[in-house]
Amino acid sequence: MSESFRALIHKIAIARDELQLRLHYMDAAGELFACQHWSIYLHDSQGQRTTIDIKGLPDSFIDYYQSIGAAIDPIMQYVSENHAPAHEQIIFTEADWKHSQLYQSGCGKKYDHEHIMTGPIVGQGKLIGTVHFARTSGTPAFNTVDLMHLSGLCAHISAQLAFLRTEQEFRRSQKVTCLTPRELQIASLVANGLTNAEIASELWISQNTVKQTLKKIFRKLNVTARAEMVAKLQLIC
After folding, report:
1. SS (H, E, C) 131-149
2. What is the pLDDT of residues 136-152, one digit of tens each?
3. Are 118 and 76 in contact (CB under 8 A)?
4. Per-residue model confidence as pLDDT tens digits over 85-110
5. Buried b / exposed e across 50-67, counting CB within 10 Å, b at 16+?
6. Rounded Cα–Cα distance for residues 131 and 39 (Å)
7. What stretches of 18-124 adopt beta strand conformation (E)?
8. Taking the model in full, what pTM does it have?
């Protein structure tokens, strides 16, 4: 496992953006942990949207877990509280796991999650994502070595994600600060739906000045239309 572990860590370290990080993880994580099902959940930097990548399971599992499983998942609760990876044998005996609400409600019986393991992705002291693994019937349970590798993997994902998001915020700030206060003011009025004539009247300037200022904004933001400018500013502000 050590060679495949190092290979995945390297791929995570050279990921250019979050999408590539997720793709590298999804390509290799299943083989690394000898799993049939695996996934990654990432909250965005505002904590408003969750991106989910999942392998080996139908979309119905996402609906099941979000509506039922998450509320009765003690492994996830442990990970959330301790920011440490866990598998079912940390929480349950083998018999208790088979009779648990999570297993009986569908995780085990319907989706054949005979063994499960979850790891935390953290940023600024908060849980900002998780990685999940499941082995199906007839496979061995996760062990201490699996937890050690998962702990290392989560640390590298967390660090690279923090780097990528800091870099992204810096690029966004650079794009905004390339606009002068007057340019930002005119762009804001455009976003509020004002025409060139209305902007000129609002700011006590000529319509030609508005037109020329918008051309400068378009060049700086590499856009060609008002709607495109507004959309781009909403992304970077």
Report:
1. EEEEECCCCCCCCHHHHHH
2. 999 999 999 999 999 99
3. yes
4. 999 999 999 999 999 999 999 999 99
5. eeebbeebeeebeebbee
6. 6
7. 37-43, 50-55, 86-87, 115-123
8. 0.75
